[in-house]
Amino acid sequence: MAKVNTRDLVVEILLLVTRDGQYSHIALGQVLGKYQYLSKSDRAFITRVTEGTLERMIELDYITDQFSKVKVKKMKPVIRAIVRSAVYQLKYMDSVPASAVCNEAVKLAASRGFAGLKGFVNGVLRSIARGLDSVSYPPGDTAEYLSVAYSMPMWILEQWLPVYGRESVERMLRNFLEEKPTSVRCNLHQISREDLREKLEREGVTVQEVPDLPCALLISGYDYLGALPSFRDGDFQVQDVSSMLVAEKADPQPGDYVIDVCAAPGGKALHLADKLDGTGMVEARDISDYKVGLIRENIRRSRMENIRAVRRDATVPDGDSEEKADIVIADLPCSGLGVLGRKSDLKYRMTKEDEEELAALQRRILSVVHRYVKPGGRLVYSTCTINRGENEENAAWFAREYPQFAMEEEEQILPGGKAGDGFYIACFRKEG
Q1: Is 215 annotated in the active site?
Q2: 280, exposed or middle or buried, with CB in 10 Å at 0-12, 13-18, 19+?
Q3: From the candidates 102, 186, 384, 427, which is the catalytic residue?
Q4: pLDDT digits (tens, 9 = 90+) for 354-395
Q5: Separation CA 52–CA 133 (nearest Å)
Q6: 331 among the known binding-site residues?
Q7: First CA to last CA across the chain, in angstroms?
Q8: Residue 345 annotated as binding?
Q9: One domain for residues 164 and 255
Q10: Was 268 annotated as part of a binding site?
Q11: Reduced to 3 DSSP states, what percent helix, strand and coil does the chain have, rounded to the nearest 5?
């Protein structure tokens, strides 16, 4: 078997994301799945350089532009990906010798069909290697500094700073760039958290418990999930701690009928089914066969019978469901700016106009799905963003438009505060 060039795989993933528009977690997962035979250290290198390059891309480009006559935006996509990943290694991976980074980048340029640019790549990277300590950053008290130092687009900072203040925003930005363990939810219908912890530790996984959330664990030190018997056995579901709070706040009672209107990949719906302990029914809906397939795969692996996956467009009224549900979960499409620690490329592909369109879509969906709540039932509205236009403002709009729904609880979770992602949850009770 021919030796695989891990740096070439990094470049391939970066191109899939930055040139072809794929989501980073999907592109990385596909490549790691294809090359499962690679050593744990090779897979860790690919993951670290890919995710790090995407997380730090604004800063990496800022550095490069100080040393290159050809600005990063003017470079050919392949050369841009090679240079970005190399600059990340030079700045953030002390264990990799600078000479090796430069030499491997030059080889990549040649192997990718750009032998004529070997000298350019070599010159720029060696200049950066020598001059990293002399890079000039914007003044530390400016938004421009935050944008460069934490690789956050200015338009997002201009939206957050007046609302949350500099201290909270910088804490969030630091949190996005920190390496974190994987948050998982124990499927309590088939194994206790204590037994799952012991099983994971026997599998060589490092495990931490999450205070005040008896279904949650934080795991690290594993190669990939598919290799863990506990994952294949359906003992746990990957799910962020903040996301778990949706089912906790929904508080389903035995026998409840629950509709999750935008459910893929199914984490919250499965959590609700687990809390129902074999009673009632959770109908997990989503708009496409692909998304419904993701839900069904997770149902199959979790081995639950009180949950079903159905294809349905949440913007289209379903007359058969009117006033049938004890609980409606409306975890709606959003900008995702609360989960940038896990999906860093979202900050580059999202725009203010996109946010506004998503906020309008959320209102369209809420105006339809509230009809499914029976008198005395609950609607739980949630997003994984921290943009007020998609959160507090939409919840206030819903309360005004549909006064029969009384808001019982509202929480905005900021990244860096609790253990989980940025998240928003509002719970409404329909008058009985």
Answers
A1: no
A2: buried
A3: 384
A4: 999 999 999 999 999 999 999 999 999 999 999 999 999 999
A5: 19
A6: yes
A7: 67
A8: no
A9: no
A10: yes
A11: 50, 15, 35
